[in-house]
Structure formats: C-alpha cells, structure tokens
Amino acid sequence: MTDTQYLAPATLDEAVSAFAAANGAARILAGGTDLLVQIQAGVVKPGLIVDVKKIGELTSVEETVDGGFIVGAAVSGAKLEKHLNFAKAWPGALEGLNLIGSTQVQGRASFGGNLCNGSPAADSVPGLVAAGAVATIQGPNGRREMPVEDFPSGPGKTNLAPGEIVVSFTFPPRPPHSGDAYLRMIPRTEMDIAVVGCGVNLTMDGDTCTAARVAVGAVAPTVRRVPDAEAALIGSTLDDTAIEAAAAACRVACDPIDDKRGTIAYRTQVAGVLLKRTTAIAAERAKA
Amino acid sequence: MAKIHVTTTINGEPEEFLCDPAETMLDVLRNRLSLTGAKEGCATGDCGACSITLDGTLVCSCLMLAAEAEGHEIGTIEGMADGDHLHPLQQKFLEMAALQCGICTPGFLVAAKALLEENPDPTETEVRFWLAGNLCRCTGYDKIIRAVMDTAAEMREAAQ
Amino acid sequence: MNEMSNKWIGKRTIRPDGVDKVTGRAAFAADTTMPGMIWGKVLRSPHAHAIIKSIDTSKAEALPGVKAIVTAADIVDFPVDTPYPLGIQDMRWMCRNVMARERALWHGHAVAGVAAMTEAIAEEACALIEVDYEVLPFAIEIDDALAEDAPILHPWMEFDGKPSNIAGTLEHSKGDVEAGFAEADVIVEGEFTTRPVHQGYIEPHACLVSTAADGKMTIWSSSQGQFMVRAMTSLLTGIPQSDIRAIPAEIGGGFGGKTIIYLEPLAAVLSKKSGRPVKMAMTREEVMRASGPTSGSKSKIKIGARKDGSITAIEGLYWLQAGGLPGAPVRGAVGCALAPYDIPNGHTFGYDVVCNRSKVAAYRAPGAPIGAFGIECLLDELAEKLEMDPLDLRLKNAAKEGTKAVHGPTYPLMGYVESLEAAKVHDHYKAPLDRTKFQGRGVASGFWFNAGGESSAQVNITEDGNVVVTTGHPDIGGSRAGIANICAELLGIDYKRVSVLIGDTATIGFSNLTGGSRVLFASSMVVTESTNKVIRTLCELAAKIWDIDPDAVIWEDGEARPAGDNAGQFDPLSLEELASRANESGGPIGAGTQLNTTGAEGGFGTHICDVEVDTELGIVRVLRYTVLMDVGRAIHPAYVEGQMQGGAVQAIGWALNEEYVYDKNGRVDNPGFLDYRMPVASDLPMIDTFIIEVPNPKHPQGVRGVGEVPLVPGLSAVRNAVYDALGIRFNNLPLSPPRVLAGLGEMKQAAE
C-alpha cells in the first residue's frame, strides 16, 4: 500500500514549507525522469512528492539586463532549446541538458533535476560547472546562492541543506568571443549514461585563450573542475602542447571506477581524448 | 490512502479520473481509462513504447505522474486518426510495412508526429536521432525511417 | 509448381491486421482485461544458487486483499529420471523452469506467486513469503561451471562417470578430419567467445487467465504458440487440454523467447484457486533476469585448406551455456556451422553446460550464430593467407544442390551460390572505403535448418462472397499479409476481400509453434490446399447449376467458367453469386486442412558490412549493411525484407554492445534497456536487402523460410569488417569500446 502523497504548490514558500516539514521523507518532482525510475525500482519510497512545476520562478527563463540568464530549475531541455538567445550564448550547457536520455526524456529533464539527482555521470553538470553557473536556493532559512561546482558532495549526494529547493541557475554575462561545449563518450549514439563527460568554456582574444573552465564527469565520485587543465589552456594559443597538457591534467583528475559502463583504464584514457575534442569545439564557437 | 481526482484533456476530450498519488500516467491510461495504445516496454523511460504528448511535447508516460495531467492536454495514439481517416503517418507505416509485431508502433507514431510538427523537413539523421528513444527490435528501423521521411515530404507538398 | 499470374503474390499489400496496429486498437496480452480481474506477482530467488528448504506463505495469505498463492506444490512434478519431451522442450525442465523445486538455480528464479486485488498488494504479499534457503556457491561462466571444483547444479547429473555440469553433447562427423588436416597446405585456428544476449522483444511476457467455476479455463497470452501454451499449462497443472482454451493475443516480439511459457501455469493455478481472472505481466527487469536469453559460448575452430582454396577439413568444438536447466541450443551450433560448405571432412562437437543463470530459450536460429561465428571469422583469415577474396573462397567451397552436408542431409536446389555471386557484383562490395577514417568491410555467410511441421487452416466463404481464412500460428512478422496474398491470388479476387485471422486452440486445428522460419511456409501450404478444396466446391456448384460435369468447369479471376466451348455456353458465375447459392451445393462453402508439412529446406544468406572505427574512443559504427538471401519466393517482399533487416540489426547488436553483465553475487547487473544496449535508430544506416528467388520445389508457391537466417552471418560480418578496418582480429564478442580500445592499445604496444 503506497503512502505517498502528491502536492503541486503554486508558490515557492508553500513548496519549501511542505518539503521541509516532511523531514527528509519528501522528494521534489521536476521532470520525474530520475524520481519515477527510482520509485519504480523501489529504491526510493517518498512519503510526499512536491511537484514544483506550477511555481513561476522554477519554470521561467529570463534574460538579465547585463546579458546573463536565469533559468528556472525545472525548465525542460525541450523548452530551453526554444530560447534562441540562451541557445546562442550557451550551446554547450544546452547540449549537455539535451543529451540526457531521449527526445521523450528531454521533454521533461531539467538542470535542477539532473544536478540534484547527484549522479557523477549527469550530462548537464559539466556544462553548468564550465559555465560558472550559480544555483539560487530557497530553504526554511531563506534564500542563498551556491556555485554549481560546489553542489555535488558524492554519488547521489549534494550539499543542499535539509528542506532546501533549487530555484534557478544564473549564467553570467558572456564576454565577447566566448564559447562552450559538452561532449560525452557513450557506446551507442544515444540513450546511454555518459561513460565520460567533458565540459569546456573558453574566452578567446584573437588566437589566445584568456579564460577557461574545464569540468569532467563520470570519472570521479562527483563532477570535477580541473584547474590544472584550465591553467594549461589559459594564455596559450590552444596549440598542441597546451591541449596535450590539459588532456593530461584531465587524466590525472580522474578517479573512476570499474563498472558495467566502463573500466578505470578506459575512462582515464577517454577523458584526455574528450578534453581535446571539446576544447576544439568550444574554441570554434568562441572564434565565430 | 486517498486518491487524487484529476481533470484533464485527452485527445481533445475532457476527462476525469481518480488515481493514486504515485501512479504513473501510463498506468492510468492503460488500467483506468482503457487507453491501451501506449505500451509498457520497460517502465524506465528507455524504450519509448509509452510515448504520449503533454501539451504537445513528446514525453514518456511512464515517467509522468498521472496527477500531473491536471489542467494539461494529453495526446495519445488513440487521438491520431480522425475518425476513420488515418493520419498520413499511420497510412504510410502501413504502405511501407514499417511495422512487424506492432508493439512499438504507437510509440513511434506519436513520436514521429511530434517530430513533423516541430520540424516538417527533417534529414535522415535528424529523424534517427529524434526517434532514438523509441526501440524497435523487429524492423531494424529502416522502413520506419523511410516511412517518416516519405510522409514528411508528402505533408510538405500537401501544405503548399 | 503452379505458374502464378502474380496479381497479389509478390505485391506489397497492406496487412489485414495493420489498421489495428497503427491505431492502438490491436490487443496485446497486457491490454486484455476481464471483469473481476485481479493481479498476480511472482516471488523470485534472491540467490544465484540455493537449496529451497521450506516456504512459509502464511503471512502472505493473511494480508488483506490476497486471494491465492501458488508454489511448486501446485505444479505437477516431472521426475528427473524420466524424460518427457514436448516439442523441443522436456517437461522435467519446464516444470522447474516455471517454478523452482528442489533448488533455486538462478537469481530471479520463480519461487512462489500471489494473486491479489491490486499489483501493489500482490507485491507486498510476495515480500511476506518466507523462504528458507541454504545458499550455495554458484557458477555462471562456462569455465567456472567446468572447473575441477565447480559447484554442481544437479547432483544427479554426471559426465564421464562423475558429477558434472555437462548435461549432454552432440556431434556431427563426415570423413576424417585428421587426414584432412594432414592434406592441408594452410591451417588456421582460433578460440572464440560470445557473451550471452537476450532476444530483446519490446513486449514483456504477459497473460490473463480466467477459470470458470467448473474448472474450464481461457488463457490470453503473448506467445509463439497457443497449442504449446495449452499443452504445457495442461501438463503443468494437471487440467485436461480439452478444458483449456488458449488464445494467442497479438504478440509484441518473440524471436524464440516466447516458444515456452513462464506465467500461464502460475496464473492458471491462481485463477482456479481464487475464482477470479488473474492477469500477470513481467516487468522488464523480470524479463531480463528470469526469461530465456540465449547462451554465452566458447568455441575452438580449426580449418585446413589447399593452396587453391579448397578446404580439406574443418573442426569445431563448442561449449554453450544452458542456464540452470539443460537445453542449450547445441544442435544449431554444431549443425549449422559447416552447412554452407561442401567439404570432404568435417567434425563438430558441442557441450550443453548448465550454469546459474536463467534457462536459455530459443533465439532466432538458436545456436547457429554461435556455430557460424568462429568458422566465418577463420574463413576470413584463410582467405587473407591464400590471398583470395573472401567471397571467392566461399564460392570455391560452396554447398550446392547435391552436396552432402556434414550435418547429414543432401541439399536440394537452393540459392547459396547465388547469394555469394550477388554479393560479389553488388554496388556495396565495390564502394570505395576511406581508410584514413579506419573504415573496413567484412563478409560472412550463414545457414539455418528451417522447419515445416504441423499447420491447420480453415478457409470459409462468407454468404456475401468474401473470404475468411483462419490459421493457427501467431503472427510475429506480418505473415497474415502473405497468407492474404496467396489466398487472393488463388481465388483471383481482390486481396481486400480476404480476411485472415489467427485461431485459438478451440477454433483451429493443431498448429505448431511460430518459429523455425516456418509460419508462412507451413500456413501457406495448408491455406493453399484449403483454398483449392474451396475452388473445387465452387466449381462443383457451378457444374450443378449448369448441369454439366464438374471437370468441365474451371476457376479463373474469381469466377467459375466453362472449361471450353464444348462445355457449353454459360455466363461465368462469380464468387459472390455462388456464395449466395451455397445452399444448392449441399452446405456452406469452406474447407479445412491439417497437415504435418514437409519440404522445408535450409536457408542460406550472405552479408556485407562496412564499419568505421573511432580509434581514439574504440567505437565501431556500422556505415553500410547489405543482406543477400535466397528466400525461395517473396510472397510479400516488404515483410521478407523486414525479416532480413531485423535479423541483421540483432546481429549488429550482438556483435557490438549487447551482453549480460553479472555482479559478484551472480545477479544480472544490467537488467534493463539502459544498460543492455540494443541498437537504437541513430546507431544504424539503412539496411539494404537483395532478395534472391530460387523457388523451393517442394512448396506450392516456392516459399523458403526467411525469419532466422538473417541473424546468423552478422556476428562475423561485423567482426571481419573491424579486422579490415584495424588489422586486429577480435575473437571475443561484443566489440564494445573498452575492448576495442584495449585491443588497439595492445597493438600499439606490440608495435613499439
């Protein structure tokens, strides 16, 4: 006999109250593409499901005056890709979101859900980290912000405090000549969980890279920024030596496991390959 | 455990039902509304046999709570034909033998219809990637892809 | 053989059941409901290998909403010392397959079942059943099952005089292979492995069973044989066959995996005990863990040939996993492996090895892809050593009409050579490859026995002059369309006037399984005979009306006509007119035929595959694929092509990414479509087909079976293409990216 209850509050305050009051027995429902699978598998038996899709802040996409974006945490990939300015500014972050699962899954899956599910292989997270996205969080103690890179704390775990809900993601204004990209290695062409994921965000000044953020996924207990890879790229002309150094740094940053999706050796090698390919795409986009 | 009363629209018709809070839209369609066109192939969103549209967006009904249908519009395979007039995709699937056992067919048709509504002129690659979430084990996809592309061409012509 | 006017045969007509399938109206087993229906669920073993000491169902029975429980005590026992064959199965294993008896032999083995008012209650009740297990060590891989200290699954099973996990062996021999190898100028050998794979049907097993108060039972189920369902349910429950009506629902894929039953006997017991219709459906996870995926395998192959390419000897040694109960498809492996070749000396030997995974069921040419894999790979190697084109090597040794195959038969007229010759001149074979992108091309051939077997058909003329054909085999590939084509052709009427239905055990005569590439072959024979009987009746009726001799009447284009001017001047009588006057003939116009059809001969095919390898990531992509096959006669070309394309894609999946992964507790680690990686639409190119028609002289329309051969050559075609692309001979499937990258790494290291 299921004891689960369902609530679809119209305001964020209601959602936070209900979520917090459930004392850990509640789950947030955005797209449901992880939650329903976990309920079906018996892995999760929530006493309360809080559907956040009626809350304006979580389902809207805003362009800020300074050229940044605020993307509601529950906005689906299918909806976000119709926002042409966002797609133009952050194609890498967007492609990470829209690589999750299938067209059907992309009709529902969201940045918020993907991040909060806490999978080290989450497709949208390396792109969010590379973008420098900052999450706005609302909880029983009010509102705060947390950079996405500080979010994951372990497989399936986040640094959210009890009762906190992710509201939106703020993307900073784009300096000119910036570009981002996300690539993943999967055995098929679609549908698989990333064996390795890589997000790269670059700003170029002519042929010189003036800023870089690099994140790798599925190769450690959490998505990781790779500062050494960034350092190798910044100031370089993205020549072979710099790229190889960045790739090596990515390989070093790996701390993967052997599982049904990949081996340690394989993932480590692939991380380096993806860094090169992702950087090339990001650079092309930056120069365009 | 109290059931939730849901008011929604399915294939253009107003519909009401009672469901458990954690019941999926797929289970409600099949077990409460007798709309068995959507199929359960996996219940984990990996096969697309349960495909429906939610306010026109293609989704897996196994990954949606029935309670979420409140106030929204659901589209299923049962709404694709207009009385005894088949949708061009349905007709083309028959003409080109784009089905063998037929279990995946409703999912493919709903998905393909959503594709052509968003992109009336897809390339073969675009069709294949859009439909990657619909598994077929019988056909090897060849005739399905051809049927979708041919229908797209016919529908574009008819629109002119 | 009749010369056909080809009005419908060979045409791409719309299948009679098609509109239902594209509108969602078609009723698959899980779509059926009955008033008062309750739900059944199965409790499954959490251990890969354990003795079942006791089962206590009292707490489950006490749960409100629970209506019935089923355990092994309710299933008829077939003692292990008394073989009891039923078709291709043995009831000793079937009774233990549907429910564990002495031991749970795999993780997920059914141990008990519950029927309750809701699925949730049934599941909760299952969790309340207490089973006392004595957990035993398990062995899943062949090497583990054959090791010195291997856990023995069946204490009574012995081989070579001692307890063993070898359930049996099978062997074929021709000539003297040792002498043959001695004559060879070149010898190639290799060891090969394939991982276990699943048929991958999208529709999980499901059934609805309703039992009346007097015990009479109706079963709707997803199955490849309603007569098998009836027979097995009867044997396993003790209820007489005459009290069981088995109705085949539309089936959502089978590929052999639904030629046995899992749920029906459980639902039958639960329905009888509860007095309610009981619906049971497997979840995808249950399908992957507890239905019948095929064997993983090991093989050792050796081929010897002279410099001119003529093969002097082939030896193949095979080990196939049976799963927890005997019955690996050794016959297919050892029988089909050498079948395409005319060789003087051949020897195949296969072992049926039990191990702690679910009992295998048939999968599209069971055993043959495994049998062919190593052979076709080594032929590639031989061709290279001899500097011969691989198709030419096969042509040099190709079986033809009159060849005595190693597995026994002497071949009648068939089109294997044609498939090779067609491949040689096909555009695909000449298309340029971009070697800078690590593209490569591979070819392979294959064979499957095909089957005839029992079939029944009833052809009835309706009062309004149209036709209802009832046949006995579930339609998994569009066979209704082919049957309609044939019947319309024979009667000379528009095919839309022919309705084709699949009968159930109460409404049609005994018909054997849908499988063995036999449905169209067998059903068209009995439909042809029935239709011809109907035509005779119609002609006799016309003769009566005209008062002439029945031999003076012919049937043409949907009408009875006088045979010639001598017969008399009469206006033709149409089918509609004659139907309206049926009472004058002495009865309704219809005929039935029941036959054990024969004359099905083996099928042969050749595949060409192009791949491209991303050598930094180890990913193999198929760029182009062509299936060339002798189908005898393509009654409905589109559905014939469909079989060729579907089988090829299953082979691609088997070769590239599909495999069962087990965790350290012997549990399937990837029991879902996320991590059991079947090809998706974006993974593939179009699959080209080339239909060859060398009509089967033993069939009225020349039909040969087409369903199974298309899977057989694919494993090697892909692997040989990868060799051509990379220069690496991968002998172990699947060619998943980590394995390919590791192979590339080894090659690089070896080069350094």
C-alpha-based Rg of chain B, rounded: 16 Å
* Share of β-strand residues of chain B: 15-25%
Strand order of the largest sheet of chain B: 2-1-5-3-4
Q: Briefly note the structural class of the backbone of chain A.
A: alpha+beta
**Low-pLDDT runs of chain A:** none
Question: Biggest interface, which chains?
Answer: B-C, 56 and 57 residues
The helix content of chain A is: 25-40%
Structure characterization notes:
The complex is a heterotrimer of chains A (288), B (160) and C (752). Chain A has 288 residues and is of the alpha+beta class. Chain A is built from 12 helices and 14 strands. In chain A, a hairpin with a 5-residue loop joins β4 (61-63) and β5 (69-72). Chain B has 160 residues and is of the alpha+beta class. Helices cover 34% and strands 16% of the residues of chain B. Chain B has helices at residues 25-32, 88-95, 105-118, 124-130, 142-159, and strands spanning 4-10, 13-19, 51-54, 57-60, 73-75. In chain B, a hairpin with a 2-residue loop joins β1 (4-10) and β2. The mean pLDDT of chain B is 97. In chain C, the strands form 8 sheets. In chain C, strands 3-7-1-16-13-14-15 form a 7-stranded mixed beta sheet, with helices on both faces. A 5-stranded mixed beta sheet of chain C has the order 11-19-18-17-12, sandwiched between helices. In chain C, α11 packs across α12 (390-396) and α15 (479-491) packs parallel to α16. Chain C is of the alpha+beta class and 752 residues long. The chains are: A alpha+beta (288), B alpha+beta (160), C alpha+beta (752). At the B-C interface, α2, α3, α4 and α5 of B face α1 and α18 of C.
Reconstruct the topology from this structure.
The complex is a heterotrimer of chains A (288), B (160) and C (752).
Chain A: E1 5-7, H1 12-21, E2 26-29, H2 35-40, E3 48-51, H3 56-59, E4 61-63, E5 69-72, H4 77-80, H5 84-89, H6 91-97, H7 103-106, H8 111-117, H9 125-131, E6 134-139, E7 142-147, E8 152-154, E9 157-158, E10 165-171, E11 178-185, E12 196-205, E13 208-217, E14 224-225, H10 227-233, H11 240-253, H12 264-287
Parallel strand pairs in A: 1-3, 2-3
Antiparallel strand pairs in A: 4-5, 5-10, 6-7, 6-10, 8-9, 11-12, 12-13, 13-14
Chain B: E1 4-10, E2 13-19, H1 25-32, E3 51-54, E4 57-60, E5 73-75, H2 88-95, H3 105-118, H4 124-130, H5 142-159
Parallel strand pairs in B: 1-5
Antiparallel strand pairs in B: 1-2, 3-4, 3-5
Helix pairs in contact in B: 2-5
Chain C: H1 18-23, E1 38-44, E2 50-56, H2 58-62, E3 66-71, E4 85-86, E5 89-90, H3 91-98, E6 103-104, E7 110-116, H4 119-128, E8 130-135, H5 142-146, E9 158-159, E10 162-163, E11 166-174, H6 177-183, E12 186-194, E13 206-211, E14 217-221, H7 226-237, E15 244-248, H8 264-274, E16 278-281, H9 284-290, E17 297-305, E18 311-323, H10 330-336, E19 346-354, H11 368-386, H12 390-396, H13 416-425, H14 427-430, E20 439-448, E21 453-461, E22 467-471, H15 479-491, E23 498-502, H16 519-546, E24 553-556, E25 559-562, E26 573-574, H17 575-580, E27 590-597, E28 603-614, E29 619-630, H18 637-656, E30 687-692, H19 714-726, H20 737-751
Parallel strand pairs in C: 1-16, 14-15, 18-19, 22-23, 29-30
Antiparallel strand pairs in C: 1-7, 2-6, 2-8, 3-7, 4-5, 9-10, 11-19, 12-17, 13-14, 13-16, 17-18, 20-28, 21-22, 21-27, 24-25, 25-26, 28-29
